[in-house]
Automatic annotation (TrEMBL):
EC number assigned by the record: 2.7.7.19
GO MF, any single term: metal ion binding
Subcellular location: Nucleus
Domain Poly(A) polymerase central per the UniProt entry, residue ranges: 261-384
Pfam families (alphabetical): PAP_central, PAP_NTPase
Key word Metal-binding present: yes
GO CC term (a single one): nucleus
Cofactor entry: Mg(2+); Mn(2+)
Protein name: polynucleotide adenylyltransferase
Family of the protein in this entry: Belongs to the poly(A) polymerase family.
Keyword field contains Nucleotide-binding: yes
Biological process annotations from GO: mRNA processing
Amino acid sequence: MAYMTAVAPVPWWPPPPELAHAGLLVASSPAGYPEPQTLPFLFAPLPPPPPAGCPLLPPPAPIVIQLQPHPSLLAEVDHRRSSSLVQFLKDEGAVLSPEDENKREKVIRELKKIVMHWANAVAYEQSVPQGLATATVLTYGSYTLGAHGPESDIDLLCLGPCIATLQYHFFVVLRQILQGRPEVSEVHTVEKAKVPLMRFRFTGIAVDLTYAQLPVIDALKAINTFSPQLLQKIDTRSWRSLSGVRVNEQIVQLVPNAEKFQTLLRCIKLWARKRGLHCHYLGFFAGIHLAILAAYVCRKFPDASVSGLFAVFFQTFAHWPWQVPVSLHDELTTCLHSEGRLMPIVMPCTPPEFCASTVTKGSLKKIREELTRGYVLTRSIQISVCTIIWK
């Protein structure tokens, strides 16, 4: 039992009888000082002194009582942490304003008109009756997944008819059409990439435009089917260009709650940027890696809150045995390509493939260190989850 010592040099044992009965501890003052007020602490009567000659026993060990927080308290803390995460994303500019969203939608609408005009020009050049040849654009990447921000580019796939070739009609004819538009600037081509593309700015917004040549004349009608027979006739480069669209469609269908997934993916992307991990060219995460990891957590914990999903993300992948691929499908799959063996992440498409990866042993070590750091911090109920992203 703990005792409070008087502030003046008054013998603490034995106490005056009147104090022992009252249970009050009174401090007396040296001469010349006013008598202090009685301290407002109540104690049980003091125990009798030990008999003479009895050895003094050591004080008992302290009793540690572990208190479990009430479920309602945990729910309130979880709700506040989720709200703070959403607000933090807005404060950091990771969420687009309605005006910016409308601006991007207008860019996509205009590019659909441009590629349709381009298909008509190609048909006229090859003496194909007007109106038969069509083309369109499809979105993929962060825009389709709903996790794009103000600095995000728009990933677009141009689907063209069988009469429009990649090397000439896409990289020459369509490029000339784009360069003739006043809204378009900084056009350049990346023809030798694994997935060839054109990069440009449309009303200031960065656009990455890839191309898939379909084995039909009416590309606009074909996108409503994408039958296996049609896909089997597509060349290798067009197949690779289509993979982004097909993977994104699968992710959107597999996640149980789109809004939670989008918020989680925004949080993870912001965390990766702040911690220096969101750069595919330096051996770290690409956008598709983070999207699949976020979707994996959402599928495993469909009822968790955003804050809970963010914590589970670190808990899951800080301890992940990276010789085991991360897959959104429960069954084991045999991937066609051996890319990304150090951090194998399987794209949810048929046939399954590993995500392209440039991860090295050094960058993987850094990734694991940051995941472990996030796991340690998210275990504390007293630490704001925004701290994991920012500091």
